[in-house]
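retry 2 of 3: previous attempt timed out while embedding magnesium ion. Reduced batch size to 1 and resubmitted. Inputs unchanged:
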Amino acid sequence: MKEPLLSIRNLTVSFDTARGPFKAVDGVDLDVAPGELVAIVGESGSGKSVAMLAVMGLLPWTATITADRLSFDGHDLLALAPRERRRIIGRDLAMIFQEPMSSLNPCFTVGFQIREAMKAHLDLSRAERQARAVELLELVGIPEPERRLRAFPHQLSGGMSQRVMIAMALACNPKLIIADEPTTALDVTIQAQILDLLLRLQKESGVGLVLITHDMGVVAETAQRVCVHYAGQQVEMQPTRGLFADPHHPYTAALLAALPERAKGRILPSIPGVVPGLADRPQGCLFSPRCRFATETCRRVPPPRMGSELGLALCHYPLVEGVPQNREIAA
Amino acid sequence: MTQAIHGTARERTAPDTVAPGEPPAAHSVMEAVNLAQSYEVARGMFAKSATVKAVAGISFRLAPRSTLAIVGESGSGKSTLARMLTMIERPGDGSLLLDDVDVAEADTATLRRYRGEVQMVFQNPYGSLNPRQTVGKAIEEPLLVNTSLSAAERRARALDMMARVGLRPEHHGRYPHMFSGGQRQRIAIARALVLRPKILVLDEPVSALDVSVRAQVLNLLVELQESLGVAYVFVSHDLGVVRHMADEVLVMYLGRGVEHGPRDAIFDAPKHPYTRALLSATPVADPESRRERIVLEGELPSPFNPPAGCPFNPRCPLVMDRCRVEMPPLERKGGQLVACWAAQ
Ligand SMILES: Nc1ncnc2c1ncn2[C@@H]1O[C@H](COP(=O)(O)OP(=O)(O)OP(=O)(O)O)[C@@H](O)[C@H]1O
Ligand SMILES: Nc1ncnc2c1ncn2[C@@H]1O[C@H](COP(=O)(O)OP(=O)(O)OP(=O)(O)O)[C@@H](O)[C@H]1O
Ligand code: SF4
Ligand SMILES: [Mg+2]
Ligand SMILES: [Mg+2]
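retry 2 succeeded.
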């Protein structure tokens, strides 16, 4: 494997809340190489966005971030002075946020916002910035770019503003893009255009991509590797084909089985119950209250991390072809 | 004024514009005939206001206990149609027949009677519930407005409905913010079903939910359809979900139906190039299936000045001269209705 662009070990984020500290991210590892696309999937609230916001340094002060390693492009992000960190983030590391409408400033034209993004990081003249802004909008497939640059965000459709967000993320030729649900609010035909664009960038300019999504179809069609999050923990990581063919963690298996596309009958094999909260966090495996394979051990003892042949599954009884392993005494 | 229009309804829907799989008019719980809605929209201080044809002539028949899915791009008129079907908005044109009564032209008293029969569930489980109202009060409210049941009877009906959607009795006195997205959608469904409607119109009911919660809510809808016999009009842009839920599918583009027929005909042999593009753009959750994707150019044209001829022609890979001047009718081609000059 190429030297990873982004390398994370044991990332933990906890928030101070009125009811005590809440671990939103709990021991996450991730490596992303140049030109690689890694997807992060998992239940809503499982810490996918928070983990990546921690990398970007965009969490509020109530968040406590710890990690054994948090490095990007050879820089130790934990040791960098805030100024140095800001210089790198925004130029080499860009993020496309979950909601385009709330991340574009309604008071400024699209062109102003794209040019501002460049001003901080690129040494270009005013005219050069304008020319590059036009070029960027063309790149993301926006017709009549000169006219659109003069538009305010509310004058654009959802698909357009999402493309403007992507254009802004690309403005400084980043080495890594973190895209948080970049197509969720869009129609499938527009989604297809945007995914094609991201994939083209990844192939042609070797950009690394982290894609957070709920859409397992998008994962199957774009990602090389998939991380699965549950309740703040990374419960599995596998190359995409392996994950879909033979998921090793019971949560991954249940998630795939609950897809209507994979259903055999009218009733979907859904996962009973809900994700644990602060108050009912189980003592052993966090998935144990909802897991069909859970035993007394699962409920009592936090599960170990399996090897990569078992998808780094965080589970006492990882699945192989749907059958739980390591269970010498049949229940 | 209540109109009984036994004969006229059937005359208005010519036989060759009834989609295969649709019931005879007399057996449908709801029949829409050329429903249309336009809005006047102000376009800034100096421009003249313009008319948007949000829905431009939609017809269908809904069989009892069945599911009709409405699919289409954002802005194609799905929610506008849903608002007309639930009588939240009076149609600008066309008829909406329930029990042979055209509620499109009915007086207020008749409307009130029929409103109880067609209920709606909205996309956003956060916005559609009043945060200051307990779950129990929210579910009982339609009973308070529409029936003369006593408080005790209302409570009993609400508790029964809550049990059916998988909420516990102790949830009755709680407030919506204490519930997850999936639970709130259950509350919204319980509220919509408490009057025992014949028809439930669901506008993107699972779009805001993640995979596992979506599965729970879809299962609930399947079970309720079986136990209560309710028919669904299911608006969704998620074709995986539509394929799972629908009996009939109606594909809309710029306010018009472009393809309409039984689910398998639409998914296995789509004929309209827009339906084909939609299906091919939908990612498949199977990394082994490597397919050619039809990537459409451009976006939905402005609804203020839709293109002449076929509304899809500026983006259509099969476009011919005729498409730019003449609107194709929605007519029978094979196992479905299709509005396309190129479709066989
Ligand atoms: N500023 C904050 N203060 C306290 N808790 C927070 C804060 N931001 C996020 N959280 C909590 O952290 C958890 C993880 O949230 P996160 O947004 O990362 O989830 P997610 O996996 O991205 O979910 P989704 O798929 O819904 O976007 C959630 O329980 C959330 O409520
Ligand atoms: N009350 C209204 N006033 C003016 N225009 C409206 C109104 N309601 C809808 N429209 C317009 O009518 C068209 C159809 O809108 P509608 O909301 O029905 O689409 P939709 O298919 O539900 O889209 P989405 O998938 O985004 O929910 C759009 O162009 C919309 O801007
Ligand atoms: S550890 Fe036990 S409960 Fe947790 S996922 Fe594995 S089998 Fe299920
Ligand atoms: Mg998120
Ligand atoms: Mg809508």
